[in-house]
Structure formats: structure tokens, C-alpha cells
């Protein structure tokens, strides 16, 4: 939610600050530039300290960054870029921390279900940000909208602090020694590289990278596309942007239940992971191909629904694969 709101906000901010397309692209890429740097170290930290502290760090730092965002924007594109980069850097550990916490709570037979439900939270946040941002920015200004999401993000941080738990009480932290009883760092690095460079694991990374490229490209640029290319008003854009996320939310919930039933009926975990990952990627391909052809907003939204709806099935694909590997 905290990062997705920048896509719709960029439309209003670009008009106020006379940003070029290059400026807008720079601003929209800043978060990911920082986010990519702390994924691995975030996973290691979550293994050591639990997922809860890192999720709180991501929420509090993101809320604080949004509070400062109007000030940074007034100073120029470069200060804004660094603020969003820092926001991404500190939010980077959130995803691996979520996986570590999910792995603690979810037993083997409900990994797909747990992973899909985790993706539902992401979709719900996107729905809120994409649907509300253009409408609120039109009425209370983009600064008021940013502060609204800042306070909401900080509220979730407070809730995480008081209500969340990194692991169940019955969880026993595994020994840091390997199966042969060797605990020196060189042996562990060799094991890590053996796992991380294995072709099946590289396939998971490639699948995740493709999924993120499509999903975050759409979230960042579709508000601009509806406004500048299709000529849709802010209120109408809010409706057009929220419908695909609603489809994604329903798809996540239905997919989670379906995945659980498939496991109960004897489907092999690997077969179900392959099925849902393939459906998500192939479906996204056809949806994007059609979006590039049609020019009416209603048809663009229709095919965007197919992209977002099928993309959320990756919670049952590579999302569950991460839990399998870890």
C-alpha cells in the first residue's frame, strides 16, 4: 500500500512539478532500487531475530518516509528519489521476513494455502492504494493523500507490535550446525551457493522476477496510461484501477481454498506449484497482449482483470516454492 500509492500520485505530482516522462520513471523506480539490496540480508536477519521486528521496521520507516514525502518533492526529483530509495531499502526485509514467519506457522500440507493468503494481503493493500489515491488526490490534494497513507501505515505498525508473533510457542529454533556438525561460515556459504544456484531455485527466481516486472510495471504506469493515453478522469480512473485488484483479491481467496483442496485430494506439491505458476504467467501474457491492442478504457480494464486475477495465483506457485525450499 505504501509503495503502490506512488503510481497514482505521480500523475498529480507530475502536473504540479512539470515532470518529464524521464523524471516520472526515475521517481517510480527509486523504491525498487533500494528494495532489491536488502532481500537476502533481510532473510538472514529474520532467521536470527524473527519476522516481526523486520515487518515493524518496514511499516514504521515507510510511514515516516510518506510523512516526509511532500517536503522532499518540493526540494526536487533527486531528494525525492533518495527518500523513496531509503524507504525501499528499509522495507526490503519485509517480504523474506513474512516468508520466515509463514514457514514457522504453516505446516507442510498448508504451505500453498498460507502462501496464497499472504498474497491476499498484498492485493488488498494494492486495491486500497490504487482505488483511493486518485479519488482522494482530486479532493484533498496529493499531500493530504500521502499523509493519510502514512498514518494508516504507521497504524499497521502499531498493530504489528502489539498483536503479531514471529513464531508459535511450540517452535524450536534449529541448530546452526549442518548435518555433519560443521558450523564454520565457509561451509555454510558453500551450502547456500549450492542451493541458490541450483536450476530449480533459479527457475523460482526467474518466475518471481517476471511476475514482479509485470505487476509493479502495471501498478506504477497504468494510472498514467489511463490519464494521459485513454483520457480518463481521476474518479473514473479510481474505478478502473480498483476493479482488477478486486478480481485479484477474489482470485487469491478462491485460489487459496482450491490449493488446499488439491492437496487434500492427493495432488503432489510440485505439480500444483507448476500448474499455478504456468497459469499465472501464460494468462498474464495473453492479457498484456490484448491490452496493447485495445483502446477503449472498458476493454483495457477487462483484460487488466485477467492479468491481475491470474497473477495472484503465484502465491500458489513460486510463493509456495519459497516455503518448500527454505
**Order of helix and strand elements from N to C terminus:** HHHHHHHHHHHHH
Q: Segments where pLDDT lies below 50 for 5+ residues? A: 175-182
Average of the residue pLDDT scores: 90
CATH superfamily: MFS general substrate transporter like domains
Number of strands: 0
Largest sheet: none
- Tally of helical runs: 13
Structural class: mainly alpha
User: What is the CATH first-level class name?
Assistant: Mainly Alpha
CATH topology: Growth Hormone, Chain: A
Radius of gyration, rounded? Answer: 20 Å
Helical residue percent band: over 70%
CATH architecture: Up-down Bundle
Distance between the termini: 27 Å
Number of domains: 1
> Beta-strand level of the residues, as a percent range?
under 5%
What does the overall shape look like?
Answer: globular
How would you describe the overall organization of this protein?
The two termini are 27 Å apart. The protein has 13 helices and no strands. The protein has helices at 6-17, 21-35, 39-49, 51-75, 77-91, 94-105, 111-163, 185-196, 199-229, 234-264, 269-291, 297-311, 318-325. The chain has a single domain, classed as MFS general substrate transporter like domains (Growth Hormone, Chain: A, Up-down Bundle), CATH 1.20.1250. It is globular and about 55 Å long.
In short:
This protein is mainly alpha-helical and 326 residues long. It has 13 helices and no strands. The longest helix has 53 residues, at 111-163.
Amino acid at each position: 500500500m505504501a509503495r503502490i500509492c506512488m503510481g497514482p500520485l505521480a500523475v498529480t505530482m507530475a502536473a504540479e512539478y512539470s515532470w518529464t516522462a524521464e523524471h516520472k520513471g526515475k521517481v517510480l523506480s527509486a523504491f525498487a532500487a533500494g528494495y532489491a539490496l536488502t532481500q537476502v540480508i533481510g532473510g538472514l536477519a529474520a532467521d536470527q531475530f524473527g519476522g516481526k521486528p523486520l515487518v515493524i521496521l518496514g511499516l514504521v520507516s515507510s510511514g515516516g518516509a510518506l510523512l516526509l514525502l511532500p517536503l522532499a518533492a518540493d526540494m526536487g526529483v533527486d531528494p525525492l528519489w533518495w527518500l523513496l530509495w531509503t524507504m525501499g531499502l528499509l522495507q526490503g526485509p519485509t517480504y523474506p521476513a513474512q516468508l520466515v514467519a509463514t514457514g514457522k506457522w504453516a505446516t507442510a500440507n498448508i504451505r500453498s494455502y498460507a502462501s496464497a493468503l499472504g498474497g491476499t494481503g498484498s492485493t488488498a493493500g494494492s486495491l486500497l492504494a490504487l482505488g483511493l489515491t486518485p479519488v482522494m488526490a482530486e479532493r484533498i490534494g496529493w499531500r493530504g493523500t500521502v499523509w493519510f497513507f502514512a498514518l494508516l501505515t504507521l497504524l499497521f505498525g502499531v498493530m504489528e507490535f502489539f498483536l503479531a508473533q514471529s513464531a508459535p510457542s511450540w517452535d524450536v529454533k534449529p541448530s546452526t550446525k549442518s548435518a555433519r556438525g560443521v558450523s564454520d561460515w565457509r561451509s555454510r556459504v558453500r551450502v547456500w551457493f549450492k542451493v541458490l544456484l541450483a536450476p530449480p531455485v533459479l527457475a523460482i527466481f526467474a518466475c518471481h522476477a517476471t511476475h514482479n516486472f509485470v505487476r509493479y510495471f502495471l501498478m506504477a504506469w497504468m494510472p498514467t496510461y489511463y490519464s494521459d493515453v485513454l483520457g480518463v478522469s481521476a474518479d473514473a480512473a479510481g474505478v478502473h484501477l480498483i476493479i482488477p485488484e478486486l478480481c485479484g483479491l477474489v482470485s487469491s481467496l478462491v485460489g487459496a481454498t482450491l490449493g488446499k483442496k488439491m492437496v487434500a485430494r492427493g495432488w503432489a506439491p510440485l505439480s500444483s506449484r507448476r500448474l499455478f505458476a504456468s497459469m499465472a504467467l501464460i494468462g498474464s501474457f495473453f492479457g498484456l497482449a490484448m491490452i496493447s491492442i485495445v483502446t477503449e478504457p472498458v476493454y483495457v480494464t477487462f483484460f487488466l482483470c485477467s492479468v491481475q486475477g491470474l497473477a495472484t495465483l503465484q502465491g500458489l506457485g513460486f510463493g509456495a516454492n519459497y516455503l518448500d525450499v527454505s
